[in-house]
């Protein structure tokens, strides 16, 4: 069967199954199966897929139509211009989380101390801390920076380690297993976290719930209206954050004020900023502690 026929048929089937971005996803799936890029698909519609490729494509298409995430099917995703392996043990990095990286970079570049410790709590695939380790390479005191990633899941840490190796920063990042910031032995100058912040109610009402069902629930859902783990981490920062340190958190669209109030009680003198995303919704909280 030609790739043109495979694509046309798969797109039609996916659209009938109400798969979002059906054309893009079917192209990505076919590119993965036949080992070619998108330019090849467009330039060679007459290319005939091998029988084993066709069979594999149809098996994966069946899962795609069941709303199984494309990223898990092709075992990779892009984040901040880098490629990461993903699997059902880790949350799929979202484009909106790139804002957390940007705001972290701003905070890091304002710090004059040469020796700098940066931790990503609940690192998952390692996307945040790996992106930072790559992006900060040009800093003059990069050799004195220390990067850490923590996660309670061994499978997630294995994935993060592999991603760090594939992106050339494994020697810069220390991964530790444990509950949030507890594994950290040294005080951190920067603590970053994209923790679960979705409540069970919001999860059940989500328009993308069909796909979310396949992602690890412990990386998505939290109690206390989605804020339990964020509040727990903020409590831990009293022990694990350096004087004049900074905490950066990704949050839900309506959680900014509650996080601000909680952080203000812990750190009355802190400078607390809430940044909105392109949809004008709360996305990142940055808390700079003044000692």
Strand order of the largest sheet: 5-4-3-6-7-9-8
Count of discrete alpha- or pi-helical segments spanning 4 or more residues: 12
* Shape annotation: globular
Number of strands: 9
CATH-derived architecture of the largest domain: 3-Layer(aba) Sandwich
CATH class label of the largest domain: Alpha Beta
Structural class: alpha/beta
Estimate the mean pLDDT confidence: 95
Radius of gyration: 21 Å
Q: List segments where confidence is low: pLDDT < 50 over at least 5 consecutive residues.
A: none
State the helicity in percent bands.
Answer: 40-55%
Write the CATH homologous superfamily of the largest domain.
Answer: Vaccinia Virus protein VP39
Largest sheet: 7 strands, mixed
Q: Quickly count the domains.
A: 2
CATH topology description of the largest domain: Rossmann fold
Please give the alpha-carbon distance between the first and last residues: 68 Å
What sequence of helices (H) and strands (E) makes up the elements?
HHHHHEEHEHEHEEHHHEHEE
Strand content: 15-25%
């Amino acid at each position: 069967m030609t790739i043109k026929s495979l694509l046309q048929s798969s797109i039609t089937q996916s659209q009938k199954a109400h798969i979002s971005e059906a054309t893009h996803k079917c192209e990505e799936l076919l590119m993965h199966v036949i080992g070619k890029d998108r330019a090849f698909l467009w330039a060679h519609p007459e290319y005939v897929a091998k029988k084993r490729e066709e069979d594999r494509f149809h098996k994966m298409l069946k899962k795609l139509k069941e709303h199984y995430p494309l990223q898990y099917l092709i075992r990779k995703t892009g984040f901040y211009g880098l490629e990461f392996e993903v699997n059902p043990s880790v949350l799929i990095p979202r484009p909106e989380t790139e804002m957390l990286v940007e705001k972290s970079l701003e905070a890091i570049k304002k710090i004059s101390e040469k020796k700098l410790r940066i931790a990503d709590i609940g690192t998952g695939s390692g996307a945040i801390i790996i992106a930072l380790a790559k992006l900060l390479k040009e800093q003059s005191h990069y050799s004195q920076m220390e990067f850490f990633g923590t996660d309670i899941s061994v499978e997630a840490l294995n994935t993060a380690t592999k991603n760090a190796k594939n992106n050339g920063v494994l020697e810069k990042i220390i991964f530790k297993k444990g509950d949030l910031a507890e594994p950290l032995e040294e005080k951190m100058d920067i603590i970053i976290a994209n923790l679960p912040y979705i409540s069970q109610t919001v999860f059940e009402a989500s328009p993308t719930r069909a796909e979310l069902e396949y992602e690890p629930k412990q990386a998505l859902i939290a109690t206390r209206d989605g804020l339990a783990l964020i509040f727990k981490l903020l409590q831990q920062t009293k022990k694990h954050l350096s004087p004049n340190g900074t905490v950066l958190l990704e949050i839900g669209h309506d959680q900014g004020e509650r996080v601000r109030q909680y952080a203000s009680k812990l750190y009355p003198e802190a400078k607390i900023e809430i940044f909105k995303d392109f949809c004008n919704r709360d996305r990142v909280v940055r808390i700079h502690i003044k000692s």
